[in-house]
Amino acid sequence: MRGRRVVVTGIGIVSPLGNSSERVWQQLNAGVSGVSRIDRFDPQGHVCQIAAQVSDFSDAKAFNPRYARRADLFIRYAVAAAEEAIIHAGLNSSAHLDNDRAGVLIGSGIGGMPMIESCHSILVEQGPKRVSPFFIPSAIINQAAGWVAMLFDLRGPNLAVVTACTTGLHCIGDAARTIAYGDAEVMIAGGSEGAITPLSLAGFASTKALACRNDDPARASRPFDSGRNGFVLGEGAGILVLEEMDYAKARGANIYCEVSGYGMSCDAHHITAPPPDGNGARRAMDNALRDAEFAVRDIQHVNAHGTSTPLGDKAETRAIRDVFGSHADQLAVSGTKSMTGHLLGAAGGIEAVFSVQSLIKQCVPPTINLDNPDPECDLDYVAGTTGRSMDVKAVMTNSFGFGGTNGSLVFSIV
Fold first, then answer.
1. Which contacts of 116-121 are long-range, i.e. CB under 8 A and separated by 24 or more positions?
2. For 335, which of 86, 156, 213, 223 could close a Cys bridge (C-beta 3.0–4.6 Å)?
3. Rounded to a whole number, what is the largest CA-CA distance in the chain?
4. On the CB side of 117, how many CA atoms lie within 13 Å of its CA?
């Protein structure tokens, strides 16, 4: 990455597989599915009745319960994941933190959909005077970053990127560049989503994008499998603590890896579908490698976007082959959405956490439900239910979103 070097010193996660980074890593590498029948509301009558829901969630200790009730789910998930990441990085007790130089960049693809639906019902049934004064502050997307900044007294840059399913990755990449360009020393970055609601479910189902294996939820998300027929709606948050390298060293932080490269592109093709040749994804990956000044042989692992959609998985596979050439057959590729579902704006955040953990643990996660690989999806997707121990020096993670927006990040051992 051009400019000052940026490193990862903390990770935090809320997900369908658990609400701590260690717990989620254990579940992920045991091939556990987080997909089940929806129990948050009655899905009867919906074409799709399954999702990857967060369970056993407890708000962050920093969040006063009175305030938590005023915040929508995506905000609460972001605060909890940020708190874990901040504690993990040792910033909660650091005497060296310059709060004026510490910022937040957390986005969401959809934002406060539960609050929007709830307040609309109140408006229709009880009238405008009964709509909560906390409706707007709870629904707008930048409030996740705002709450994290307020609760942890982070007075540097405060931003929210909104780029559909690429949101979390773009937030991390842009936050890294904020540090690299000298605008901050520390950034809390990632994505959060809490949009498993009747309206969201109906809307995504109407696009024919969802897997509807209502009788077999755990096997519904199946990236790269010939029987795949759509993604599973998920929720949660994934957050990284990023720091300028010398700043992290000076305060004695544990440095887990470096943010080495960041690439972006646009398909300029279709509002929801990727181009069949994956040229937008290819350009994002090329740009990330160029930014990192890495050769293709320097990457050992790719955490794929791998949504389990018929077009998306083929396009990404082709893009990986175009970028990596003969080295593509040496890559260990993981489709972790097979277990977490698709967390929309949070997907790039949690998959960045998984990529960092792959470097820390020297292990890459499996891709479950890959029983009959699509002949056009012919990479080494680490099929099965067990993570693969291997030598990992550099990881690429991909996120692609509606509107044709694409992003890729490269993390590497320092």
1. 117/197, 117/198, 117/199
2. 223
3. 64
4. 18
- Asked whether 323 and 285 are in contact (CB, 8 A), the reply is yes
Distance CA 305, CA 52 (A): 16
Give the start-end residues of each E strand in 194-341.
Answer: 236-244, 257-266, 301-303, 332-334
188-238 pLDDT, tens digit each: 999 999 999 999 999 999 999 999 999 999 999 999 999 999 999 999 999
Task: For residues 159 and 141, give the distance between their C-alpha atoms in angstroms, rounded to a whole number.
Answer: 10
Say how many C-beta atoms besides its own lie within 10 A of residue 250's C-beta. 12
- Alpha carbons 394 and 142: distance in angstroms, whole number: 31
pTM over 0.85: yes
Query: Would you call 384 helix, strand, or coil by DSSP?
Result: coil
| Cβ neighbours around 205 below 10 Å, total | 17
Taking a C-beta distance cutoff of 8 angstroms, is the pair 411, 8 a contact? Answer: yes
**CB burial class (10 A; 0-12, 13-18, 19+) of residue 109?**
buried
Q: Report the DSSP beta bridge partners of residue 158.
A: 104
Taking Cα atoms as reference points, which of 379, 384, 398 lies closest to residue 281? 398
At residue 303, what are phi and psi to the nearest 5 degrees? -90, 105
The strand pair at 301-303 and 332-334 is best described as: parallel
For the chain, the first-to-last Cα distance in angstroms comes to 13
Q: What is the Cα–Cα distance from 173 to 167, expressed in whole angstroms?
A: 10
The residues assigned a catalytic role are 165, 305, 342
Question: What contacts 138, CB < 8 A, 6 or more positions away?
Answer: 70, 71, 72, 75, 112, 115, 132
Beta strands, E only, 64-193: 102-107, 158-159, 186-193
Residues in the chain: 414
Rounded Cα distance between 303 and 333, Å, is 6
> Around 377, how many Cα atoms within 13 Å sit in the side-chain half-sphere?
31
Secondary structure of residue 401 in the 3-state scheme? strand
Structure tokens at 13: 């996660």
Neighbouring CB atoms inside 10 A of 255's CB total 14
Q: Is 105:176 a contact under the CB 8 Å cutoff?
A: no
Structure confidence by residue, pLDDT tens digits, 138-188? 999 999 999 999 999 999 999 999 999 999 999 999 999 999 999 999 999
Spatial CB neighbours of 215, under 8 Å, sequence gap ≥ 6: none
